[in-house]
Each structure stands twice: as structure tokens, then as C-alpha cells.
Amino acid sequence: ASDVYKRQAELYGVDIANSCRMGSCGSCKCVKISGDIAMHNTDGLSEADKLSRHVLLCVGTANSSRIVLDA
Length: 71
Description:
The chain contains 2 helices and 5 strands. The chain is of the alpha+beta class. It is globular, with a radius of gyration of 11 Å.
């Protein structure tokens, strides 16, 4: 999937909080339960967020065929 999760969610009518859409503010942050997600910017995540499997949906793209999130 080359599209970021924020855009995909919008296509299906799922509202995800956001502000910057660049990975800087952290308002689209959620917990990744399973799967692999690449983010081209992680400025919106603290070190504690990263250790607790948080991802930013506005800049996240899938690196695995199945992703499970707790949004």
C-alpha cells in the first residue's frame, strides 16, 4: 500500500484526528498491535511512544499484508 493510512481511512469514512498531516504534531498517533508500518517522519512520537508501538497514521505506509491498529 503506497497510500498513507490517514487517506485510506478517509476514503472509507473513518475519522482520524489530525492536524499537520506531516508526522510532526502526533495527533494521529495510535498503537500498532501487529504488522509492519514504515513512517517517513516520526517527529510526532516521543521515545516512550516508539517503545510502546505507537505509529503516526498520517505518514504510515504498510510493509506487511496485514496491519492491526488500536485507533
